[in-house]
Amino acid sequence: MSTKHPIAAVAVSNEVETGRAWLRKDAAPAARGSIAIDGAPIRIESLTKQYGSSKAVSGIDLDIHAGEFLSLLGPSGSGKTTLLMMLAGFEFPNEGSITLGGIDITRMAPNKRNIGMVFQRYALFPHMTVRQNIAYPLKMRKVPKAEIPDRVERALSMVQLSGYGDRMPSQLSGGQQQRVAVARALVFEPPVLLMDEPLSALDKKMRERMQIEIKQLQQRLGVTVVYVTHDQEEALTMSDRIAVMGNGCIQQVGTALELYERPATPFVADFIGKMNFIPSTCVAIDDDGVTARVSGNAVFKVPRHQVRSATLPSVGDRLDLAVRPERTQIRAGNVQASGIAGIVEAKAYVGAFQWLIVRLADGTVVHVQSQCGGAAGNIEERSAVDLTFHTAAVQAFRGD
């Protein structure tokens, strides 16, 4: 980065000095009676991690904003945990760099990075009380003994566990243990908190409650959070932005709305929410978009901005039309014949809505989510139906 311009030079100098302050931050107590954290930005450039001939992470570039809650979302083996371990310093990359507040930490030891970490299994010391667990990182940082009790109590209050300090981890519920792990990770006021699938061991209701609590805590403190999960609902609920990972690469970074409404690749479209992919053939092209023919000779126009390809396809090319189940309309076959013809193979009532599975003439299976009491209410299994969808709900991906 060039710093010849005096204003740019000052900006870079300030960023670097702020980064140094984060890294050397001692454990001086906050001025007010609560945890006080300044989140730090993270820049990841061309980061690669290779094990033998296999690349776990391949050339990742990512900017994480100060005070942001960013989730690394992807299936097992996508590289998200490896990336998190390199941020923590437990793994070093083969190529690329990581900077925290403008300071290069790529090969810095974990204990020098001043980064908090919450593990999947909490990693609490079973022979220590809650208070002793939370105090441990302060002792490791040689905080004066007189300051430790007050800081521990503030951390307990922060996670709503005041009065639990003398209990052992075995006397706590899973949710309470997770709160202790969060308090221990934040008690020394790190600028960044890394979380590796921290809620996976909890039941559904507790997990949903902890999602809200962690997000509210992060917003209140202003700490930068990098959160690893394979649970798309969890990522959509908690994150300011989500980085979807697959095959060691970042497929797309965006808000929950951007990823759901405008997925950049079939991988993202399929991984975020549920998506139908309906094979079709491009039969016409104009300035406004492409026209695709689907099973049964139904024809649909897809606007140019909804064709997820750098260049328009050619006539005769295979296209996969992507449409969400809840945006697929279904009607009895004898009511409307302008849609895609199919047969209902299964129907299931799931409370607020019902699922229908429809098989098209070419064998494609399409899932439909319909409100109970709607047009699909009287449609039974083995019925002939027509499927339609609004133009704005359809996106086209190259079939290859």
Question: Could you explain the architecture of this structure?
Answer:
- Strand 11 and strand 12 (289-294) form a beta hairpin.
- The chain is built from 9 helices and 20 strands.
- The chain is α+β, with helices and mostly antiparallel strands and 400 residues long.
- A 6-stranded mixed beta sheet has the order 6-7-8-3-9-10, sandwiched between helices. A 5-stranded antiparallel beta sheet has the order 13-12-11-14-20. Strands 15-19-16-17-18 form a 5-stranded antiparallel beta sheet, with no helix packed on it.
- Helix 3 (130-140) packs across helix 4 (148-158) and helix 4 packs across helix 5 (174-186).
- The chain has 2 domains: 7-266, P-loop containing nucleotide triphosphate hydrolases (Rossmann fold, 3-Layer(aba) Sandwich), CATH 3.40.50.300; 274-398, Nucleic acid-binding proteins (OB fold (Dihydrolipoamide Acetyltransferase, E2P)).
- The protein has helices at 6-24, 80-88, 130-140, 148-158, 174-186, 204-221, 232-238, 256-261, 266-271; strands spanning 42-51, 54-64, 69-73, 95-100, 103-104, 115-118, 192-196, 224-229, 241-246, 249-254, 276-286, 289-294, 299-303, 318-323, 329-332, 340-349, 353-360, 365-371, 384-388, 395-398.
- Residues 42-272 form the ABC transporter domain.
Provide the residue-averaged pLDDT: 87
Number of E-type strands: 20
In spatial order, strands of the major sheet run 6-7-8-3-9-10
Succession of helices and strands? HEEEHEEEHHHEHEHEEHHEEEEEEEEEE
CATH class type of the largest domain = Alpha Beta
CATH topology of the largest domain: Rossmann fold
Report the sheet with the most strands, covering strand number, pairing sense and barrel closure. 6 strands, mixed
Number of helical segments?
Answer: 9
Keywords: ATP-binding, Cell inner membrane, Cell membrane, Membrane, Nucleotide-binding, Translocase, Transport
InterPro entries: AAA+_ATPase (IPR003593), ABC_SmlMolc_Importer (IPR050093), ABC_transporter-like_ATP-bd (IPR003439), ABC_transporter-like_CS (IPR017871), Mo/tungstate-bd_C_term_dom (IPR008995), P-loop_NTPase (IPR027417), PotA-like (IPR005893), PotA_ATP-bd (IPR017879)
GO molecular function, one term: ATP binding
Function: Part of the ABC transporter complex PotABCD involved in spermidine/putrescine import. Responsible for energy coupling to the transport system.
